[in-house]
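User: Hi! I'm working on a homework problem where we have to compare a predicted structure to a textbook description. Could you give me the structure for the chain below?
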Amino acid sequence: MVAETPILPAHIEETIRAIAKLHADHHQEAGTLQRVVERLTAWIGRPRFIAALTAIVALWIASNLLVSLSGLRPWDAPPFNWLQGGLGLLALYVTVLILTTQRRDDQLASYREQLTLELAILSEQKSAKIISLLEEQRRDHPHLENRVDTEAAAMAVAADPQTVLDAIKDSAAASPAADRMNAQAV
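Assistant: Happy to help. Predicted structure tokens:
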């Protein structure tokens, strides 16, 4: 029997669609060259690439040694300068491919971080509003005891993101780790 996919609430489906759109838009913004770079990086990251590279290097060395043993002049005698140069060039290209792909992935991660931060701030503001409304209801309801709740009153005030950011910066600047980092920079 096939398990049925649960029906998700509309707000969750909307969130899933928004995230999927973020990824789709990011993919569509890539040019042809960027897509080629991403495909190459994905191909290089597979075990088949390592196996193929190992086989090519082994074949290169073995064929040069066999040619040398047969008395002929090998095209790349030990210490295999041409092989070393080719592998060095390959390493350079692989590095550039990975860095290019990582830079683009970092851009997408930055969008996600921004979205997460904005939603966290919005959630905090909504929570403060809910606490404020509950406190108002408690004060106005004739059957509930009207008392002072300083903790609820403090939580009912939405945090100012700039003030929180400034406090984080001040705290980080005062930490011993920041002192070590500043000393290392000098």
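For your comparison, note the following. The mean pLDDT is 87. DSSP finds seven helices and no strands in the chain. Good luck with the assignment!
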